[in-house]
Specification:
The chain is mainly alpha-helical. Helix content is 53%, strand content 11%.
């Protein structure tokens, strides 16, 4: 079994490899391991790393895109959607704005995260 992005490909499984990839990405997006906006590896890169044909990964990505779980932005790549992550687009945009504004203010990323944790009432260690 080979692992990449916590996706297991079992060549002996009766489940086709493209479906194993599709399910792996969908599961990781749903559990938060692949947050909304995460850029997925290119088809060629993931195929090479998993030891499968590029068409196998392309089919998995097409299935994910058809389901609205990823979106392909041309030459920019393929990204996990807010829908896949169970997050509203507005929440994703708000997080992106906060990251940009914090960076523009020169706030250290760790400090920016600590501020969010405090604002949400979370333990600093969470």
């Amino acid at each position: 079994m080979r692992r990449i992005l916590s996706i297991d490909i079992d060549p002996r499984s009766t489940v086709p490899p493209y479906e194993q990839i599709r399910a792996g990405v969908a599961t990781r997006a749903a559990d938060g391991s692949l947050p909304a906006g995460t850029r997925l590896p290119t088809v060629r890169d993931l195929a090479t790393r998993l030891g499968v044909a590029a068409n196998t990964v392309a089919k998995a990505y097409r299935e994910l895109e058809h389901a609205g779980l990823v979106e392909t932005r041309g030459r920019h790549g393929t990204f996990v959607t807010a829908r896949a992550a169970g997050v509203s687009r507005e929440a994703q945009q708000l997080a992106a704005r906060y990251a940009t504004d914090s960076r523009d203010l020169g706030v250290d990323p760790r400090q920016a995260l600590a501020l969010v944790r405090a604002a949400l009432g979370l333990d600093p260690q969470d």
